[in-house]
Amino acid sequence: MCGIAGVRRFDRAVDHVGAAAAASAVMATRGPDDANEWHDDRMALAFRRLAIVGVHDGRQPLVDQTGRYVLAGNGEIYNHLELRAGLESRGHRLQTHSDLEVALHLYIEQGPASFDLLRGMYAFAIWDNATGELVCCRDPFGIKPLYYQSDAGAFRFASELPALAESMPSMPALRPEAVLRFLTFQYVPEPDTAVAGCRSFPPATTCVSTPTAARHSTGGGRPGLNRPTVRSTTTSTRFGPPSSTRCMSTAPPKWNRAHSCRVASTPASRQHWPTAPAPPPPSRSASPTASTSSPTPSGLPRRWVPSTTHCASPTRWPLTASTR
């Protein structure tokens, strides 16, 4: 578990370096192994590290050989060895063993389309010194958290809400409606948060903030930042002047339906269950309550009556034995 934070300032009166450092200090528990910061006159990135991959040389923020691109990320790329081999065969020279350096070089080569090649859990930000673009990306399942806040002075993001609130010029207030949702559902549904002005990046979302005119892009499957409608295909969010943002969403992976559970609503007489021989007629001398295989409305013995709740896995079909 690592932590990232960043502040892109629009107003030169904003202390973006101090704000990023304050957010990093709040996230000290997320990264006990290392802490580092990077900044220029427009952008400040902070990183807290729990070293897992590239322990000795994977310090972040990562800067490419040209000094143009800078990445700060939290997570793990499971297929980084395969992707690294492909990059090296195409002439890339990676400086560390970090899995997120692979993501950085893929972005340099292919842009935001490279995120479709990543398999893992991640949330990272890439800053482009030449164009002034800030790219934020979150994994398809939303395993790694990433929150943001924007106003006229700056755009801020962090891995934790307390860290994001610490980077803001004043302490934000709680949203009463979010507290009500938490008391109702035991969590606050994304992209809303309990803090006023702060929101969460939805899963499978890529957000590009640029200093030029507003640009729109289309995406499917997952909603954009301010459009929680599942079937939305065009999303755009403005992160304060003079920046603009285009958000792209990728469709989440399909669920493995072979192991999904459901509640059966089909009557027992219409379900395809193993049939049993018809029970012999009860003897007149026998007591009706002593029979253990009396017929049911479906024509099966009681021991074959299926449960109405079952798992759709093809290997197990639990049955209910009402009598023994």
Task: Provide a descriptive summary of the structure in words.
The structure is a single chain. The chain is an alpha+beta fold and 324 residues long. The protein folds into two domains: 3-249, Aminohydrolase, N-terminal nucleophile (Ntn) domain (Glutamine Phosphoribosylpyrophosphate, subunit 1, domain 1, 4-Layer Sandwich); 257-324, no CATH class. The chain is built from five helices and 16 strands. Strands 4-5-6-7-11-14-13-12 form an eight-stranded antiparallel beta sheet, covered by helices on one side. A hairpin with a 3-residue loop joins β2 (34-39) and β3. α1 (16-26) packs antiparallel against α4 (161-167) and α2 (80-89) crosses α3. The longest helix is centred in the first third of the chain and has 12 residues, at 99-110. The chain is globular. The two termini are 52 Å apart. The model is unreliable at 213-245, 249-274, 289-294 and 304-324 (pLDDT under 50).
Task: Walk me through the topology.
Elements: E1 3-9, H1 16-26, E2 34-39, E3 43-49, E4 62-63, E5 69-77, H2 80-89, H3 99-110, E6 120-128, E7 134-138, E8 147-150, E9 154-158, H4 161-167, H5 176-185, E10 199-200, E11 205-210, E12 217-218, E13 234-237, E14 244-249, E15 261-263, E16 309-311
Antiparallel strand pairs: 1-3, 1-9, 2-3, 4-5, 5-6, 6-7, 7-11, 8-9, 8-10, 11-14, 12-13, 13-14, 15-16
